[in-house]
Write a structure and sequence with these properties.
Layout (H helix, E strand, L loop, with lengths): L3 E7 L5 E6 L2 H10 L4 H4 L5 E8 L2 H12 L3 H7 L7
Antiparallel strand pairs: 1-2, 1-3
Length: 85
């Protein structure tokens, strides 16, 4: 059963933010409310552009580290985009 997600958000300033959660809808709402992370707090609204199911928190954290090490263009390809969002 999938309980965790690794996700990418596009922020209002066109930057990308990567995180993990076990409740994607609630976390997205928290980001848009400015209460989820210090980084997104000043970059709202945010839009979910990628979410990958993970088996557990450990797998989600490992995937988050992998995604954060990618270049912006690699992250865009991951989202199925080849140019700016």
């Amino acid at each position: 059963m999938v309980n965790w997600f690794c996700y990418l958000l596009r922020c209002a300033d066109d930057t990308l933010y990567c995180g993990i959660t076990n409740d994607l809808e609630k976390r997205l709402a928290a980001h848009n409310a400015g209460t989820a992370s210090k980084y997104t707090r000043t970059r709202v609204p945010v839009e979910l552009v990628f979410a990958e199911p993970c088996v557990d928190r450990s797998d989600a954290s490992k995937r988050e580290i992998e995604i954060k090490s990618l270049t912006r263009s690699e992250k865009l390809k991951l989202c199925g985009r080849t140019s700016a969002l």
